[in-house]
Amino acid sequence: MTPLISSAAQPRENPKPEEQKLEESTVSLKSKPNLTMKSIPLLLMGCGGVGRKLLEHIVSCRSLHAKQGLHLRVVGVCDSKSLVVAPDMLTMELNDNFLSEVCRVKLDGSSLSTADQFGECRVFTKPGLTEKLIGVASLLGKSTGLAFVDCSASSDTIGMLTQVVNLGCCIVLANKKPLTATMDDYDKLVAHPRCLRHESTVGAGLPVIASLNRILSSGDPVHRIIGSLSGTLGYVMSELEDGKPLSQVVNAAKSLGYTEPDPRDDLSGMDVARKALILARLLGNRINLDDIKIESLYPEDMGPNVKSVEDFLSSGLVSLDNDIQERVNKASLNGNVLRYVCVIEGSRCEVGIQELPKNSPLGRLRGSDNVVNCFSQYLQEHDNFLGA
Length: 388
Description:
Elements: H1 17-30, E1 38-45, H2 49-60, H3 62-67, E2 70-78, E3 82-85, H4 96-107, E4 122-125, H5 129-140, E5 147-150, H6 158-164, E6 170-173, H7 183-190, E7 196-197, H8 208-217, E8 222-228, H9 231-241, H10 246-255, H11 264-267, H12 270-282, E9 293-294, H13 309-316, H14 321-333, E10 336-345, E11 348-357, E12 370-376, E13 384-387
Parallel strand pairs: 1-2, 1-5, 5-6, 6-7, 9-11
Antiparallel strand pairs: 2-3, 3-4, 8-10, 8-12, 10-11, 12-13
Helix pairs in contact: 1-2, 2-4, 9-10
């Protein structure tokens, strides 16, 4: 029976479990126990919230890593416009003071193009960044090894990742888009299972990917998954259950840091759909995003191309309050609650609002926690993963 795992969610400004998982994944790719100090070269793409927290976590864990015989040697950091690398990537690294300055500058919204002011480094800017990154992978991949960490939210990294994995690099993903691209690109990435870690793409701080892989490897095929995979939408649904209007709940979630700057990025359901697609493909379903039925919490005429964020929050959301409240009341009369979930069963994959029993694992869900229920020959509804 799968153990119950739980952890509490935090707003986006605070460290989240996936940053620690990223760092653990990076270590697990190359390290071996009971050896002398092992140096693992690492290049980070993406210096947003997740990327910065990963760098901060690496710096803060130096003494722990030393006890484990490990050293994460950060040789490069890249944002969408600039790449900063150590002067000699074969032997040198960007030191911890430099990395702290990188985090500070990116928190302020500035570019890495002026990073040479922080210390000794080489800075490259567009055009030609992709070629330069592939050059780094070529230099280190089959010599010292390189952990290529993608903490961006960009689909532009897909082609590059399929190339660097062939150059001997290991890939660690927080970015979901490479794993939700075309089946052709997906196949190229997963063709190197020993060189790919993507635990942080689904389930926040939970070992969902690793656990599913172990279940499948044991010869127990999973035939159904139902889960709440969005902390934001989990919070919204449980607050609606308490009788609060949707407009009030979404604005509160934004102020708490649970949503993206534009809450429609969460309310569209696309983020949940990407997570569901990753799980569905893990189960062997050869499907694409277009094959998933996705329910958005707002209509097309309130989309980003029609309304500004300010107009959506001030007037658009209010017009949706009555409809969603009617659905909440109807579910309550049936002894049920509404939850935004993904359902994967056979070749079917869909995400949206479902009416579920109040005393079920998903019905008992509160706040921004995640729940994933897996069903197989040996796993039933009570065997589930809980987390942030």
